[in-house]
Automatic annotation (TrEMBL):
<protein>
    <submittedName>
        <fullName>Uncharacterized protein</fullName>
    </submittedName>
</protein>
């Protein structure tokens, strides 16, 4: 089983992949879940939807638990 940190990190990596697919420069250290730009936030939202669908994990809940610690 993956930790919350792993889920969030992997989902963030997927968001970066989606950004690259839309001709954005790769920013692997960027925290897409903190993005304020609509397009960057959209990459995070797409990654969450895809990751949750494929993995059956609640990435947003994992992110909330990380920040509650």
């Amino acid at each position: 089983m993956k930790t919350n940190e792993q889920l969030v990190r992997e989902c963030n990596e997927l968001a970066d992949t989606f950004a690259q697919m839309h001709n954005h420069m790769s920013r692997p250290a960027f925290k897409y879940y903190e993005a304020t730009h609509p397009q960057e936030a959209g990459f995070w939202n797409m990654a969450v939807a895809a990751y949750d669908h494929i993995e059956g994990s609640d990435v947003e809940a994992a992110l909330d638990e990380i920040y509650d610690i």
